[in-house]
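#lab-general

N.A. 3:47 PM
ok so I finally got the sequence cleaned up, no stray characters, all 777 residues accounted for. can someone with queue access submit it? mine expired

B.Y. 3:52 PM
send it over

N.A. 3:53 PM
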Amino acid sequence: MRFGRTCDILFRVVIGTLVAYLTRLPISSNSSSCPNASVTSVTSRPHLQERQWQPEVPPEVKPRRLLFVGVMTAQKYLDNRAASVYHTWGQKLPPETAQIAFFSSAGSVCHTDPNLPLVALPGVDDSYPPQKKSFLMLKYMNDHFIDDFEWFMRADDDVFVRGDRLEEFLRSLNSSKPLFIGQAGMGNKEEFGMLSLSPGENFCMGGPGIIISREVLRRMAPHMKYCLKHLLSTHEDVEVGRCIGKFAGVPCAWSYEMQTIFYHNGSGAAAFTGDLHSKQVHRAITLHPVKTSEHLYRIQNYYNALKLLSLRHEILKLRREVSDMNSLLYPGKSDPMLAWPTLNRFRPESAEQVLEWEFFTKSLFSHLDFNPKRAPRSSLKWAQNDLTMQMMDSLNQYSQQRGRVIDFRELLYGFQRLDPLHGVHYVLDLHLVYRRYSGKKMTAPVRRHAYLEQSFSSIDLVEEVDCVGTSPFPPNLKRDFGRLLRYHTDLKKRQLDSTDPLCSKLVRDEQVNFVVPISGRYATYLRFIKLMEDVCFSTNQSVSLTIVSFVTSDNSETFLDTEKHLESVRRRYPQYDISLLRAEGNFSRAKALHLGSQRFANDSLLFFVDVDMAFDVETLSRIRKSTKMGRMVYYPIVFSQYDPSTWSTKDTSVDHFHLTQDSGYWRQFGYGIASMYRADFERVGGFDQSIYGWGKEDVDLFEKYIKEGEKDSRFAVFRAVDPTLVHIYHPIHCDAKLDSVQLTMCLGTKAASLASESVMTRYLMDNPSLLHTLDKP
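B.Y. 4:20 PM
back already:
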C-alpha cells in the first residue's frame, strides 16, 4: 500500500510538470506542426532525458497599482495646505496600491518638507482659473503612469480623502471600463445656460474630487491640446468634463449616492470647523472644502478616533466569542459582562431591581429626577444622535450593492433604561425614508420600531503622573445611578501631600485669586473666612483673596467690622495677599467682580465665587486643571443645598459635603461660579456693569464666552459637576422691583431650592388636606 501510494504521487508530479510545460510553449499558426523539431518527441522518455528541457521564463509583468492621486496646488499653499494634506490623508494611502503627487507652477519649492512629492509643471503659473495646470497635470499622469495604475484622481489641496473608503469603493468597480466619477453638476442657478453645456451634458465638480479610469485617460490624452485651445468657460472642471465627454464618450456618473460619497459643504470657509459628528462626515469618502491645515489635522484625528472605536468593537466581539467557547468547555463559567446584546440580559431578583424605563420625545419624562418633565441634556441628545447614526450606518452598509438607501428623518419618541452591568437599552419609534435608486426608482416614508442596546466597553485606566485629581473618593451610587448617597469627605485626609515631588510643584505653581462680592451679611462672611483659613491659609495653598464690599448707610458698621476682622487675618497670615475693596451704592455683582479683577495682571487666574460657597483643596486642583489661558474657561456645576429644615439632622447640620438627593441638587442653570484668566475676561468684554440686583450678569458673561468659542474653535467653555463646591442654603429674597427677567430667574431659583421632590411628596402624603385647597374658591 505504501509503495503504490508513493508511485501514484510520483506519477502525478511527472504529469503535472509536463502539463505545466506544455501550456507555456508558443503556439504556431499551423496546429499540425511545431516551431521546434525536438518538441515532436516530447512524449519520448529517452529523448527527454537527453534534451533536459528548461521551460522559458517569461519577462516579469509588473502588476498595475490601484490609484494615482494628483493634488493641484500653488506655491503659496505648498508650505501649509499641501504639506498638511501630505501628512494627513496622504499618509493613509497604502503605498503598495496608491501614490500621491502635488502639482504646482514652474519653479515651485516646498520649504517645510523637502520630501513632499512635488511636480513643478513647466510653463505653468499659479493664475486662476487653473485650466492649463489641470490639463497638463492629467497629461503628466498619462505620459508617466498610464500603464502603472488603474484609476487616476484629480484633487484640490482643500479636500480631505478617506483612503481606506476610497480603495474599497474603487475595488467594487470595473477599472477596464471608461468611467468618469464624481459629484455630477450642471452649474448653479447663476451659471445656468452660461457654461455652454448641451442638453443633458454634465461635468464632475472639481472640489470634492474627480476620478477617471485608465481607459478614460487613454482616450482623452491625445486631445488635451485641442481641449485647452477650445475653452468655452472659465471653470477648469467644466472644461475637463467637456473634454472627457467629447473624446472619451462618457459623462460624469449620474448617481444618487455620489452626492454623499463626494461631499461638498456649502458653508465655505466655515465648513467642517464645527461638530464633525454627523452622518455626512461619517458616510463621505471626500470632504470639501477644508481651508486650513488645523482643520485637516482635526478631521484626521476624528477619523482616527472612529477607527479606534471600530477596533474596540471588533475586540469586544472577539472577547464575546472567546467567552462563548469557554462556556462550552467549562459550563457555567461564562462571563456575564461578555454576553451578547439583548434587552433581557439583566434578570432582576426582586421588585426593587426591576429596571425602569424613561419616556422621551422632544422632552424627557422621568420619575427618576426631581423635575419629571424637562428638556433632554446635551449628553443625552449626543448619545441619541450617535446611536441613530450607528444604526443607519449599519442599515446602509450594503446600500451600494442593493441599490437602495434608508435615510433617517426624525425620532418620534422612545424609551430608555440603564442596565448597570451591560449598557443602555433603547426602544425607538423612527420616521425613515426608503429610497431605491436602481431599477424601478421609488421613495417612500417608513415608520419602524428599533430595539437597541449600547453595551458598555472595557474600562480604560489612565495614570496621571501629576497626581492632580486622584485624591477624592468616588461617590457611592445606588443601583439606578441616580441617587447620590453620603459623600465621604475628610478635609485633612483629602489634602494633597505637599511632600510628593510629582505633585507639589504642579499643584502649587498657579495662584488662584479668589474674588468675592459681599454686601453686609457679616455672619456669612465669617464662615467663609474660616473656610479660607482651614482649606487654604493654614495648609500653605497658593491663593490670594480679594473681597469687594458694597457700603450703604444701612451696613456701614458691618463694613467696619469686616475691615477690622480682615486686618487680624492679615496679621496671622502675612505671606498672603488679602485685600478688602470698598464699593459705593447699590449692590452690583458685575461691578464688584469687575473691580476685583482690575487688581491682577492679564496672566492671573481669577476665581469668581460667592460668600455662600463651601469648597475644599480639591476645588483648587480642578480650577487649575480646567482653566487654560486663551483656550478654556471653567464653569463648575455646583451642588446647591435645599432648606436644611427639610433634611438636616444633628449629625448632618454642620457637614456641608453631605450630598444626597434630599439634601440638594446640581444647579445646572447657575453660571455665577467660574474661573478664568483675566486676559480672557477682558477679551470678551467682561461683565455688563449696567446690571444691578440679583442675577443675569453671570448668564450674560457665559453667553459671551459661548459666542467667542463659536468664532474661535480653539476656545472652549468647560462645564462639569464639581462635588467639592457646595452652595450653602440661605433664604432667597426676590425684590419685586427687579427686571422681569431677573425676577423670573430669582423666583425659579427660590422655588427649586425649597426641598427635594421626595420630601415634598411625603409632605403632601402626610397632609392630604393640602391637595384640596385648590378646589376652594
